[in-house]
């Protein structure tokens, strides 16, 4: 069944979706219809977090969002984190810490960490370890063992708060 | 597809399409849609209906909107007013799931493992159902009728859940293989009503529906020293055994019936000990 033509607002731009089926997830539409393959597709049941995006600023699994129901929402994907071509702070931090191995989980993790840093109060030192672990608990990484990812979060927090340049 | 903006919009759309899927957070429903296991002709999207969002206090009761997300259950005053619900919500899925999934969705799915259900059972929650024909209210044990079965009629949606504000400690405990992204093997909610001098216990994942441990409750109400807020060790043992007897668990891929009976007794002991200190000898 067709969902009719509809418009999704992704990374600040309106995208026409002309001929989607009603049952398509936001993840599917981003990747297959809008040419935004940064969000990764693995489990399609909300378990792995590799499709994480922000919808109206909240971190969600795009595989669990019905695309046609996201009309009128502001969707931010990994492609929108660094719109000017410079690396975003979280991206720089992951590079510096070597927190990337195969890279499949990285876009989802970056969205989760970006959301965490947005929600932290200004100032202060490293975010509490338990808070960080909870914030990334919905993002599975099968390569790194998470040590370097935690290190990257600490670097990213410093960058976001201006404690490091 | 209908993107409802008001409760009336949603009820009208449901009256026109009684077999429509209701979509709130999507955390259960989209899994089935992605697998091609859910057929549908119409979807009524209810995540933008203001009347379903948030919560309000009415005297000694809280009215929780069906669209309240798990994340919202842990914010602001709710963890103080309903600590067991906030604890249960924090054990659900991951931040991504908690930002999307809702109280109404947990009820509508009616899974034996639904994490908020033992809390709602312990609180004697009332489910408020709405359709274009009007409103009706059902006690939780009349609403959830079996494994993934409930009393929702085709044109109805869940509008809200009413629960009391109680004076007393509350606990929610859950056994699973890790702290995140886990479906419970056994779970228990314990709430204390100091004014009514009663303890109420709801059990999850150990029966087809959320159950109350009524014999254990009646026993422990009489064993607690309500003036000092303490209970003797022997009474904790007896309480733990009676809670385990209230469970009707099965073997499945997450655990055996024997393990679940043992675990629910351990949770009962732990929750009661957190709520009441040991009596002086």
Structure overview:
The complex is a heterodimer of chains A (165) and B (281). Chain A contains five helices and five strands. Chain A has 165 residues and is an alpha+beta fold. In chain A, β1 (6-10) and β2 (13-17) form a beta hairpin. In chain A, α2 runs antiparallel to α5. Chain B has 281 residues and is of the alpha+beta class. Chain B folds into two domains: 57-164, Uridine Diphospho-n-acetylenolpyruvylglucosamine Reductase, domain 3 (2-Layer Sandwich); 170-278, CO dehydrogenase flavoprotein, C-terminal domain (Enolase-like, domain 1), CATH 3.30.390. Helices cover 35% and strands 25% of the residues of chain B. In chain B, the strands form five sheets. In chain B, strands 4-5-10-6-7 form a five-stranded antiparallel sheet. A four-stranded antiparallel sheet of chain B has the order 11-12-13-14. A three-stranded parallel sheet of chain B has the order 1-3-2, with helices on one face. In chain B, α10 packs antiparallel against α11 (233-246) and α11 (233-246) runs antiparallel to α12. Chain B is globular, with a radius of gyration of 19 Å. At the A-B interface, β4 of A face α2 and α6 of B.
Short synopsis of the structure:
The complex is a heterodimer of chains A (165) and B (281). By secondary structure, chain A is of the alpha+beta class.
Structural descriptors:
heterodimer; A: Ubiquitin-like (UB roll); DNA polymerase, domain 1; 2 domains; 5-stranded mixed sheet; 5 helices; 32% helix; B: 281 residues; alpha+beta; Uridine Diphospho-n-acetylenolpyruvylglucosamine Reductase, domain 3; Enolase-like, domain 1
Write the element-wise H/E pattern of chain A from the N-terminal end onward: EEHEEEHHHH
Biggest interface, residues from each chain: A-B, 30 and 27 residues
- Let me know the largest β-sheet of chain B: 5 strands, antiparallel
Number of helices of chain B: 12
Distance between the termini of chain A: 51 Å
Q: Supply the number of structural domains of chain B.
A: 2
Q: Outline of chain B, from the CA principal axes?
A: globular
CATH homolog superfamily of the largest domain in chain B: CO dehydrogenase flavoprotein, C-terminal domain
The CATH homologous superfamily of the largest domain in chain A is termed Beta-grasp domain
Low-confidence stretches of chain B: none
Give me the side-by-side strand order of the main sheet of chain A. Answer: 2-1-5-3-4
Which architecture name of the largest domain in chain B does CATH use?
A: 2-Layer Sandwich
Radius of gyration of chain A (CA) equals 16 Å
Kindly report the oligomeric state of this protein: heterodimer
Order of helices and strands of chain B: EHEHEEEHHHHHHEEHEEEEEEEHEHHE
Distance between the termini of chain B: 66 Å
**Structural class by SSE content of chain A:** alpha+beta
* Overall morphology of chain A: globular
- CATH class term of the largest domain in chain B: Alpha Beta
* Biggest beta-sheet profile of chain A: 5 strands, mixed
